[in-house]
């Protein structure tokens, strides 16, 4: 849900000339800060302070127990550059983000187009498509672990039912397939959100323009490409940000289904951070990995905000 | 009419894709283990309602669900109150330094929880909150504030300022203007905020994994993890657990689905 952005304030014509505001500006200002204070205090202590601390911790070799944290400069980052597992996790994250975003986008857009005219049963479709979105990750994880189970899962039995029995395998236990198997489960759970956003956006598409294009002889694909897509651009941007940000912080489904295995084939930056910092007590190093995650998330978010601002102009 | 038929075929396929896994697990919850292995997809021949009772007591699901409800009862109002206050001030008046405050809150929206979890864990430990309900509640509240503040700010910004000023002319204090006039006007935003935060809190996983490791502190989400560890071969028991954990939230969703869907879209669009 990390998509709220600062939009530039509309011009405030006559705002500060209202008589009451002029009467006691100091009083209003003080009370304004008092309103912000409780949230800011909690936020500063539990979010901002740890954020700063993570930079400091990444420069130490702390193990979580020693009374003194030894400063080792950029030692952790030097180790990071030579850590093949780190690069693998980063690579997995990129696959996850690119493939997952493309897949979720394509399916949700297709479904949204199919219900564009609000056919009979629209509410039922929307209710069901959105349902995985509201469920805890643990439930999605278990349901899909069962689907993939070689012993009794739907997938393998279905494959042998249609004569593709040779394809069946323990999907989550196979290093070549595990990452994609978990990704499919994760995409399945996020399609609903992208779908409702697209549905809402399509509802606002100008029908007259479409009719005009049809009269002018534009084919279905041309109408989609040149009339619908441009009008959807802000929804597309929004869904992209949502999916990208979700993609970089992917943790829950992976942790529940594979814990980063088998053979680190589903290790992502977030799971690797958790493993180093909390399971191996390599706190300084874990903080260094998490810092990479921070920088990547910030770069992606800022890039998209920029893009969006340019689009608005 | 063929396009119309094929459209329904595709829509129905996805309907099955989203629904079938749940039907499968729920029906497994009412089967014995031998039946699950022999015929994984058939409907239960003689429903074993005892599985659900076992999961509730032996599997400690009653306790886990109680904890989840408790976390929601503290975190949702906590985030909502703090976010409303901050969002109101940042949305309706121009405070000097407001840009910096907004920037700070925006930072919290852009970075994932994993960016801060390492130092935050040791902070919670040093504050001696680890192993208590507060250890789960307080970080969860903090984590919801950035998004909540921005969400509420966007709702308060849309309210006309004249209404508040009129009340001020009549001698109403700042607190009164907020609580009696502006807040009731922002009710749609308030509902969105509560629904979204309820869902985030009900579903949270990593926070209780870190701060609620104690048996007594586990909510449903991490509770099931340990449950699976203990009963990994007892599939009907696991299915019963999943059923108990998913049915309440699905019922809430079906009753309030308009708010869920509108909340998620408007929350995302704001």
What is the topological layout?
The complex is a heterodimer of chains A (313) and B (270).
Chain A: H1 19-23, H2 25-57, H3 75-81, H4 84-114, H5 122-134, H6 137-148, H7 154-161, H8 178-203, H9 207-215, H10 220-231, H11 233-248, H12 252-257, H13 269-279, H14 283-312
Helix pairs in contact in A: 3-14, 4-8, 4-11, 5-8, 6-8, 8-11, 9-10, 11-14, 13-14
Chain B: H1 2-28, H2 33-38, H3 50-57, H4 61-92, H5 98-110, H6 117-126, H7 133-157, H8 161-169, H9 174-185, H10 187-203, H11 206-211, H12 220-230, H13 235-255, H14 257-269
Helix pairs in contact in B: 1-13, 3-13, 4-7, 4-10, 4-12, 5-7, 7-10, 8-9, 10-14, 12-13
Summarize this entry quickly.
The complex is a heterodimer of chains A (313) and B (270). With 313 residues, chain A is mostly helical.
Structure description:
The complex is a heterodimer of chains A (313) and B (270). In chain A, 70% of the residues lie in helices and 0% in strands. With 313 residues, chain A is an all-alpha fold. In chain A, helix 6 crosses helix 8 (178-203) and helix 13 packs antiparallel against helix 14 (283-312). The longest helix of chain A has 33 residues, at 25-57. Chain A is globular, with a radius of gyration of 25 Å. Chain B has 270 residues and is mainly alpha-helical. Chain B has a single domain (49-269), classed as MetI-like fold (Orthogonal Bundle). Chain B is globular. Chain B starts with a helix and ends with a helix. At the A-B interface, helix 1, helix 2, helix 4, helix 5 and helix 6 of A face helix 1, helix 4, helix 5, helix 6 and helix 7 of B. Chain B: It comes from Actinoallomurus iriomotensis.
């Amino acid at each position: 849900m990390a998509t709220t952005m600062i939009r530039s304030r509309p011009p405030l014509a006559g705002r500060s000339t209202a008589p009451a505001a002029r009467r006691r500006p100091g009083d209003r200002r003080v009370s304004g800060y008092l309103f912000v204070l409780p949230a800011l205090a909690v936020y500063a202590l539990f979010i901002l302070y740890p954020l700063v601390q993570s930079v400091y911790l990444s420069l130490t070799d702390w193990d979580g127990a020693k009374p003194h944290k030894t400063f080792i400069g950029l030692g952790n980052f030097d180790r990071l550059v030579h850590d093949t597992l780190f690069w693998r996790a980063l690579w997995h994250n990129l696959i996850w983000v690119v493939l997952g975003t493309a897949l979720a986008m394509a399916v949700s857009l297709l479904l949204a187009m199919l219900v564009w005219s609000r056919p009979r049963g629209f509410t039922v479709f929307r209710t069901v498509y959105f349902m995985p979105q509201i469920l805890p990750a643990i439930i999605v994880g278990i349901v899909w672990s069962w689907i993939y189970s070689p012993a009794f899962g739907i997938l393998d039995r279905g494959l042998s039912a249609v004569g593709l029995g040779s394809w069946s395998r323990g999907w989550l236990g196979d290093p070549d397939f595990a990452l994609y198997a978990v990704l499919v489960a994760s995409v399945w759970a996020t399609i609903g959100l992208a779908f409702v956003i697209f549905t809402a956006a399509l509802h606002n598409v100008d029908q007259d323009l479409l009719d005009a294009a049809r009269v002018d002889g534009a084919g279905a694909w041309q109408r989609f490409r040149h009339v619908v897509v441009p009008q959807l651009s802000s929804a597309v941007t929004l869904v992209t940000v949502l999916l990208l940000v979700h993609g970089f912080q992917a943790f829950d489904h992976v942790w529940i289904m594979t814990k980063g295995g088998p053979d680190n084939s589903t290790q992502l930056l977030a799971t690797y951070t958790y493993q180093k910092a909390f399971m191996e007590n390599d706190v300084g190093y874990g903080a260094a990995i998490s810092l990479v995650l921070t920088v990547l998330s910030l770069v992606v978010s800022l890039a998209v905000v920029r893009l969006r601002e340019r689009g608005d102009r | 009419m063929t396009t119309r038929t094929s459209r329904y075929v595709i829509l129905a396929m996805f309907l099955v894709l989203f629904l079938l896994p749940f039907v499968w697990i729920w029906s497994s919850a009412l089967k014995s283990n031998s039946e699950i292995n022999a015929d994984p997809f058939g409907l239960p021949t003689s429903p074993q309602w005892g599985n659900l009772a076992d999961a509730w007591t032996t599997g400690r699901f009653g306790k886990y669900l109680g904890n989840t409800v408790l976390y929601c009862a503290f975190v949702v109002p906590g985030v909502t109150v703090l976010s409303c206050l901050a969002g109101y001030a940042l949305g309706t008046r121009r405070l000097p330094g407001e840009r910096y405050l907004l920037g700070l809150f925006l930072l919290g929206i852009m970075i994932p929880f994993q960016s801060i979890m390492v130092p935050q864990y040791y902070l919670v430990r040093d504050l001696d909150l680890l192993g208590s309900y507060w250890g789960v509640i307080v970080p969860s509240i903090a984590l919801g504030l950035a998004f909540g503040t921005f969400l509420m700010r966007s709702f308060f910004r849309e309210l006309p300022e004249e209404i508040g000023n009129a009340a001020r002319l009549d001698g109403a204090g700042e607190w009164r203007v907020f609580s009696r006039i502006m807040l009731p006007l922002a009710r749609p935003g308030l509902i969105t905020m509560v629904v979204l935060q309820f869902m985030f809190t009900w579903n949270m996983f990593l926070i209780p994994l870190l701060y609620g490791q104690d048996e007594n502190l586990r909510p449903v989400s991490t509770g099931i993890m340990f449950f699976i560890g203990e009963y990994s071969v007892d599939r009907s028991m696991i299915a019963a657990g999943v059923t108990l954990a998913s049915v309440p939230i699905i019922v809430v969703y079906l009753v309030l689905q308009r708010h869920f869907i509108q909340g998620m879209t408007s929350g995302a669009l704001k």
